[in-house]
Amino acid sequence: MTTQQLIPPIHSTLKFMPELVYFEPDALNYPKGQHIHQWALEQGLEIHMTTSHNQIRDLPGESELEKYRIAKRTLVVGIRKTLKFDSSKPSAEYAIPIATGCMGHCHYCYLQTTLGAKPYIRIYVNIDDILGASKQYIDDRAPEITRFEAACTSDPVGLEHISGSLKQLIEFMAEQPLGRLRFVTKYHHVDSLLDAKHNKHTRFRFSVNADYVIKNFEPGTSKFAERIEAASKVAGSGYPLGFIIAPIIWHDGWEDGYEELLEKLKGSLPPEATKDLTFELIQHRYTKTAKNIIHTRYPKTKLEMDEEKRKYKWGRYGRGKYVYPDDQANALRTFITEQIFDKFPAAKIEYFT
To answer: For residue 230, what is the domain's CATH number?
Structure first.
Protein backbone atom coordinates (compact mmCIF):
# COMPACT_ATOMS: atom_id res chain seq x y z
CA MET A 1 0.00 0.00 0.00
CA THR A 2 1.45 3.37 -1.00
CA THR A 3 1.46 6.50 1.11
CA GLN A 4 -0.98 8.18 -1.24
CA GLN A 5 -3.38 5.25 -0.88
CA LEU A 6 -3.24 5.68 2.88
CA ILE A 7 -4.25 9.35 2.76
CA PRO A 8 -8.04 9.64 2.28
CA PRO A 9 -9.91 12.76 1.16
CA ILE A 10 -10.40 14.83 4.31
CA HIS A 11 -13.74 16.18 3.12
CA SER A 12 -15.48 12.82 3.52
CA THR A 13 -18.33 12.60 6.04
CA LEU A 14 -18.53 8.81 6.00
CA LYS A 15 -18.11 7.02 9.30
CA PHE A 16 -14.52 6.99 10.45
CA MET A 17 -12.55 4.00 9.20
CA PRO A 18 -8.93 3.80 10.35
CA GLU A 19 -6.16 2.67 8.05
CA LEU A 20 -3.95 1.37 10.86
CA VAL A 21 -4.96 -0.09 14.22
CA TYR A 22 -2.61 -0.57 17.15
CA PHE A 23 -3.47 -2.57 20.27
CA GLU A 24 -1.73 -2.22 23.59
CA PRO A 25 -1.34 -5.77 25.02
CA ASP A 26 -3.58 -5.29 28.05
CA ALA A 27 -6.41 -3.99 25.85
CA LEU A 28 -7.14 -7.53 24.69
CA ASN A 29 -7.90 -8.54 28.29
CA TYR A 30 -11.07 -6.44 28.20
CA PRO A 31 -14.32 -7.34 26.39
CA LYS A 32 -14.32 -4.01 24.56
CA GLY A 33 -10.76 -4.56 23.38
CA GLN A 34 -11.63 -8.04 22.14
CA HIS A 35 -14.70 -6.66 20.38
CA ILE A 36 -12.73 -3.93 18.59
CA HIS A 37 -10.03 -6.44 17.62
CA GLN A 38 -12.65 -8.71 16.04
CA TRP A 39 -14.20 -5.69 14.28
CA ALA A 40 -10.80 -4.67 12.87
CA LEU A 41 -10.22 -8.22 11.59
CA GLU A 42 -13.63 -8.26 9.91
CA GLN A 43 -12.87 -4.92 8.25
CA GLY A 44 -9.58 -6.23 6.93
CA LEU A 45 -7.61 -3.47 8.64
CA GLU A 46 -3.87 -3.50 9.16
CA ILE A 47 -3.35 -4.48 12.82
CA HIS A 48 -0.24 -4.02 14.94
CA MET A 49 0.65 -4.60 18.57
CA THR A 50 2.49 -1.97 20.59
CA THR A 51 3.77 -1.97 24.15
CA SER A 52 2.43 1.58 24.56
CA HIS A 53 0.97 4.33 22.42
CA ASN A 54 4.10 6.32 23.27
CA GLN A 55 6.14 3.80 21.26
CA ILE A 56 4.31 4.55 17.99
CA ARG A 57 6.90 6.56 16.10
CA ASP A 58 7.30 5.13 12.62
CA LEU A 59 4.03 5.87 10.88
CA PRO A 60 4.32 5.89 7.09
CA GLY A 61 4.63 9.11 5.12
CA GLU A 62 7.29 10.91 3.15
CA SER A 63 6.77 14.28 4.80
CA GLU A 64 5.58 15.60 8.14
CA LEU A 65 2.28 16.62 6.54
CA GLU A 66 1.72 13.13 5.14
CA LYS A 67 2.59 11.55 8.49
CA TYR A 68 0.14 13.87 10.21
CA ARG A 69 -2.73 12.92 7.90
CA ILE A 70 -1.97 9.23 8.29
CA ALA A 71 -1.80 9.63 12.08
CA LYS A 72 -5.32 11.07 11.93
CA ARG A 73 -6.37 7.75 10.35
CA THR A 74 -4.62 5.65 12.98
CA LEU A 75 -6.51 4.08 15.89
CA VAL A 76 -4.84 3.03 19.13
CA VAL A 77 -6.82 0.77 21.46
CA GLY A 78 -5.59 0.84 25.02
CA ILE A 79 -6.12 1.44 28.71
CA ARG A 80 -6.90 4.73 30.43
CA LYS A 81 -4.42 4.57 33.29
CA THR A 82 -5.02 8.01 34.78
CA LEU A 83 -8.46 8.11 36.39
CA LYS A 84 -8.07 11.59 37.81
CA PHE A 85 -10.44 13.72 35.73
CA ASP A 86 -9.51 17.20 34.55
CA SER A 87 -11.69 20.22 35.17
CA SER A 88 -13.95 21.20 32.28
CA LYS A 89 -15.16 24.69 33.14
CA PRO A 90 -17.36 26.38 32.06
CA SER A 91 -19.04 23.43 30.35
CA ALA A 92 -19.03 20.99 33.28
CA GLU A 93 -17.31 20.11 36.53
CA TYR A 94 -15.15 17.36 35.00
CA ALA A 95 -14.02 15.95 31.68
CA ILE A 96 -14.72 12.23 31.45
CA PRO A 97 -12.16 10.49 29.22
CA ILE A 98 -13.49 7.72 26.97
CA ALA A 99 -11.34 8.59 23.94
CA THR A 100 -8.62 10.98 22.83
CA GLY A 101 -8.08 12.46 19.38
CA CYS A 102 -10.44 13.32 16.55
CA MET A 103 -10.80 12.25 12.94
CA GLY A 104 -11.85 15.74 11.84
CA HIS A 105 -9.48 18.28 10.32
CA CYS A 106 -10.73 21.51 11.86
CA HIS A 107 -7.93 24.02 11.35
CA TYR A 108 -8.58 25.90 14.57
CA CYS A 109 -8.93 22.93 16.95
CA TYR A 110 -7.13 23.17 20.29
CA LEU A 111 -6.25 19.47 19.97
CA GLN A 112 -3.61 20.61 17.47
CA THR A 113 -1.50 21.63 20.43
CA THR A 114 -2.76 19.44 23.27
CA LEU A 115 -2.07 16.28 21.26
CA GLY A 116 1.08 17.72 19.72
CA ALA A 117 3.03 15.07 17.84
CA LYS A 118 0.49 12.34 18.70
CA PRO A 119 -2.66 13.21 16.74
CA TYR A 120 -3.74 9.60 16.40
CA ILE A 121 -7.04 8.49 17.90
CA ARG A 122 -7.19 6.47 21.10
CA ILE A 123 -10.13 4.47 22.47
CA TYR A 124 -9.99 3.34 26.10
CA VAL A 125 -11.38 -0.12 26.74
CA ASN A 126 -11.44 -0.11 30.56
CA ILE A 127 -14.81 1.62 30.57
CA ASP A 128 -15.87 0.10 33.90
CA ASP A 129 -12.89 1.75 35.60
CA ILE A 130 -13.83 5.09 34.06
CA LEU A 131 -17.46 4.77 35.11
CA GLY A 132 -16.38 3.78 38.61
CA ALA A 133 -14.19 6.86 38.88
CA SER A 134 -17.07 9.08 37.75
CA LYS A 135 -19.30 7.55 40.45
CA GLN A 136 -16.70 8.48 43.05
CA TYR A 137 -16.66 12.07 41.83
CA ILE A 138 -20.46 12.17 42.05
CA ASP A 139 -20.44 10.78 45.58
CA ASP A 140 -17.75 13.23 46.68
CA ARG A 141 -19.83 16.23 45.56
CA ALA A 142 -23.21 15.03 46.86
CA PRO A 143 -25.77 16.50 47.30
CA GLU A 144 -24.67 18.78 44.42
CA ILE A 145 -25.23 17.63 40.82
CA THR A 146 -22.00 16.77 39.02
CA ARG A 147 -21.73 17.36 35.28
CA PHE A 148 -19.30 15.47 33.05
CA GLU A 149 -18.13 16.59 29.59
CA ALA A 150 -17.33 13.67 27.29
CA ALA A 151 -15.99 15.66 24.33
CA CYS A 152 -13.03 17.57 25.77
CA THR A 153 -10.41 15.42 24.06
CA SER A 154 -12.36 13.78 21.23
CA ASP A 155 -15.61 13.67 19.28
CA PRO A 156 -17.13 10.52 20.80
CA VAL A 157 -20.06 10.38 18.36
CA GLY A 158 -17.60 9.91 15.51
CA LEU A 159 -16.15 6.83 17.24
CA GLU A 160 -19.32 5.28 18.59
CA HIS A 161 -19.70 2.73 15.78
CA ILE A 162 -16.35 1.29 16.86
CA SER A 163 -16.39 1.65 20.64
CA GLY A 164 -20.02 1.70 21.82
CA SER A 165 -18.67 3.57 24.86
CA LEU A 166 -20.85 6.64 24.57
CA LYS A 167 -24.09 4.66 24.82
CA GLN A 168 -22.72 2.86 27.88
CA LEU A 169 -21.86 6.20 29.43
CA ILE A 170 -25.29 7.68 28.65
CA GLU A 171 -27.12 4.74 30.20
CA PHE A 172 -24.83 4.69 33.24
CA MET A 173 -25.41 8.38 33.88
CA ALA A 174 -29.16 7.91 33.47
CA GLU A 175 -29.08 5.83 36.66
CA GLN A 176 -27.19 8.46 38.67
CA PRO A 177 -29.59 10.83 40.48
CA LEU A 178 -26.79 13.38 40.88
CA GLY A 179 -24.89 12.71 37.66
CA ARG A 180 -25.29 14.48 34.33
CA LEU A 181 -23.52 14.01 31.00
CA ARG A 182 -22.77 16.46 28.22
CA PHE A 183 -20.96 16.10 24.91
CA VAL A 184 -20.75 17.94 21.62
CA THR A 185 -20.27 16.64 18.09
CA LYS A 186 -19.76 17.71 14.50
CA TYR A 187 -21.00 14.35 13.22
CA HIS A 188 -24.45 13.12 12.27
CA HIS A 189 -23.96 9.41 13.03
CA VAL A 190 -26.41 9.35 15.94
CA ASP A 191 -28.78 6.48 15.11
CA SER A 192 -27.24 3.99 17.55
CA LEU A 193 -27.81 6.46 20.40
CA LEU A 194 -31.48 7.21 19.75
CA ASP A 195 -32.79 4.26 21.76
CA ALA A 196 -30.44 4.77 24.71
CA LYS A 197 -32.13 5.02 28.10
CA HIS A 198 -30.93 8.52 28.93
CA ASN A 199 -33.52 9.64 31.52
CA LYS A 200 -32.87 13.20 30.28
CA HIS A 201 -29.57 13.16 32.17
CA THR A 202 -27.55 13.72 28.97
CA ARG A 203 -27.48 16.97 27.02
CA PHE A 204 -26.69 16.19 23.39
CA ARG A 205 -25.06 19.21 21.74
CA PHE A 206 -24.04 19.96 18.17
CA SER A 207 -21.30 22.31 17.05
CA VAL A 208 -22.62 24.70 14.41
CA ASN A 209 -21.24 27.75 12.66
CA ALA A 210 -21.59 30.19 9.80
CA ASP A 211 -21.21 28.72 6.32
CA TYR A 212 -17.90 30.54 5.88
CA VAL A 213 -16.40 28.74 8.88
CA ILE A 214 -17.68 25.27 8.05
CA LYS A 215 -16.63 25.58 4.41
CA ASN A 216 -13.12 26.88 5.05
CA PHE A 217 -12.06 25.40 8.38
CA GLU A 218 -13.96 22.17 9.11
CA PRO A 219 -12.98 19.50 6.55
CA GLY A 220 -13.66 15.92 7.51
CA THR A 221 -16.83 16.74 9.45
CA SER A 222 -20.53 16.33 8.69
CA LYS A 223 -22.26 19.01 6.67
CA PHE A 224 -24.42 21.56 8.45
CA ALA A 225 -27.63 20.06 7.04
CA GLU A 226 -26.58 16.60 8.25
CA ARG A 227 -25.90 17.91 11.75
CA ILE A 228 -29.30 19.63 11.94
CA GLU A 229 -31.11 16.54 10.69
CA ALA A 230 -29.31 14.57 13.41
CA ALA A 231 -30.28 17.21 16.00
CA SER A 232 -33.93 16.75 15.06
CA LYS A 233 -33.61 12.99 15.58
CA VAL A 234 -31.97 13.54 18.95
CA ALA A 235 -34.71 15.92 20.05
CA GLY A 236 -37.30 13.42 18.91
CA SER A 237 -35.70 10.85 21.21
CA GLY A 238 -36.20 13.12 24.20
CA TYR A 239 -32.65 14.25 24.80
CA PRO A 240 -32.14 17.79 26.09
CA LEU A 241 -30.56 19.59 23.11
CA GLY A 242 -27.90 22.25 22.82
CA PHE A 243 -25.77 24.05 20.26
CA ILE A 244 -22.25 25.35 20.57
CA ILE A 245 -21.39 28.15 18.18
CA ALA A 246 -17.63 27.83 18.13
CA PRO A 247 -15.33 29.21 17.22
CA ILE A 248 -17.09 32.46 16.44
CA ILE A 249 -14.91 34.02 13.75
CA TRP A 250 -14.89 37.65 12.69
CA HIS A 251 -14.95 37.66 8.88
CA ASP A 252 -16.38 39.72 6.06
CA GLY A 253 -20.15 39.43 6.30
CA TRP A 254 -20.10 37.81 9.72
CA GLU A 255 -23.42 39.41 10.73
CA ASP A 256 -25.19 37.89 7.73
CA GLY A 257 -23.42 34.57 8.28
CA TYR A 258 -24.48 34.14 11.90
CA GLU A 259 -27.98 35.49 11.31
CA GLU A 260 -28.40 32.98 8.47
CA LEU A 261 -27.11 30.19 10.73
CA LEU A 262 -29.76 30.90 13.36
CA GLU A 263 -32.47 31.31 10.74
CA LYS A 264 -31.61 27.86 9.41
CA LEU A 265 -31.78 26.41 12.91
CA LYS A 266 -35.15 28.00 13.54
CA GLY A 267 -36.54 26.68 10.27
CA SER A 268 -35.18 23.16 10.70
CA LEU A 269 -35.82 22.19 14.31
CA PRO A 270 -39.09 20.59 15.42
CA PRO A 271 -41.01 22.43 18.17
CA GLU A 272 -40.02 19.86 20.83
CA ALA A 273 -36.36 20.69 20.24
CA THR A 274 -36.77 24.28 21.40
CA LYS A 275 -38.44 23.60 24.74
CA ASP A 276 -35.17 22.97 26.59
CA LEU A 277 -32.52 24.48 24.35
CA THR A 278 -29.09 25.80 25.32
CA PHE A 279 -26.41 27.75 23.48
CA GLU A 280 -22.73 28.13 24.27
CA LEU A 281 -20.72 30.84 22.51
CA ILE A 282 -16.94 30.67 22.14
CA GLN A 283 -14.92 33.22 20.21
CA HIS A 284 -11.89 32.12 18.21
CA ARG A 285 -8.63 32.10 20.13
CA TYR A 286 -5.17 30.70 19.52
CA THR A 287 -1.69 30.49 20.98
CA LYS A 288 1.58 31.13 19.17
CA THR A 289 2.32 27.42 19.41
CA ALA A 290 -1.03 26.59 17.83
CA LYS A 291 -0.43 29.13 15.06
CA ASN A 292 2.87 27.49 14.10
CA ILE A 293 1.38 24.00 14.14
CA ILE A 294 -1.68 25.02 12.12
CA HIS A 295 0.43 26.70 9.43
CA THR A 296 2.54 23.54 9.18
CA ARG A 297 -0.39 21.15 8.96
CA TYR A 298 -2.71 23.36 6.90
CA PRO A 299 -0.34 25.60 4.95
CA LYS A 300 -3.11 27.07 2.80
CA THR A 301 -5.46 27.89 5.65
CA LYS A 302 -7.42 31.13 5.53
CA LEU A 303 -7.61 31.25 9.32
CA GLU A 304 -6.72 34.77 10.51
CA MET A 305 -4.05 34.68 13.23
CA ASP A 306 -2.52 38.15 13.26
CA GLU A 307 -1.35 39.18 16.73
CA GLU A 308 -1.61 42.84 15.74
CA LYS A 309 -5.38 42.40 15.41
CA ARG A 310 -5.83 40.54 18.67
CA LYS A 311 -5.83 40.97 22.43
CA TYR A 312 -3.69 38.77 24.64
CA LYS A 313 -5.73 37.15 27.40
CA TRP A 314 -3.87 35.56 30.29
CA GLY A 315 -5.01 32.11 31.34
CA ARG A 316 -4.14 29.55 33.95
CA TYR A 317 -0.54 28.69 34.81
CA GLY A 318 0.80 31.94 33.36
CA ARG A 319 -0.14 31.02 29.80
CA GLY A 320 -2.49 32.97 27.62
CA LYS A 321 -4.21 33.12 24.24
CA TYR A 322 -4.95 35.65 21.57
CA VAL A 323 -8.64 36.61 21.46
CA TYR A 324 -10.55 39.40 19.75
CA PRO A 325 -10.22 42.94 21.12
CA ASP A 326 -13.02 44.00 23.46
CA ASP A 327 -14.91 46.00 20.84
CA GLN A 328 -15.04 43.08 18.41
CA ALA A 329 -15.80 40.51 21.14
CA ASN A 330 -18.64 42.67 22.46
CA ALA A 331 -20.04 43.16 18.97
CA LEU A 332 -20.01 39.40 18.33
CA ARG A 333 -21.59 38.62 21.69
CA THR A 334 -24.30 41.29 21.43
CA PHE A 335 -25.31 40.49 17.87
CA ILE A 336 -25.42 36.71 18.23
CA THR A 337 -27.16 36.92 21.61
CA GLU A 338 -29.88 39.14 20.14
CA GLN A 339 -30.32 36.79 17.20
CA ILE A 340 -30.66 33.77 19.48
CA PHE A 341 -33.32 35.36 21.70
CA ASP A 342 -35.17 36.71 18.67
CA LYS A 343 -35.47 33.26 17.15
CA PHE A 344 -35.49 31.13 20.31
CA PRO A 345 -37.04 33.24 23.11
CA ALA A 346 -37.05 30.33 25.58
CA ALA A 347 -33.42 29.33 24.99
CA LYS A 348 -30.68 29.67 27.58
CA ILE A 349 -27.24 31.05 26.72
CA GLU A 350 -24.91 29.31 29.15
CA TYR A 351 -21.84 31.44 28.53
CA PHE A 352 -19.81 33.53 26.09
CA THR A 353 -16.06 33.20 26.32
So the answer is: 3.80.30.30
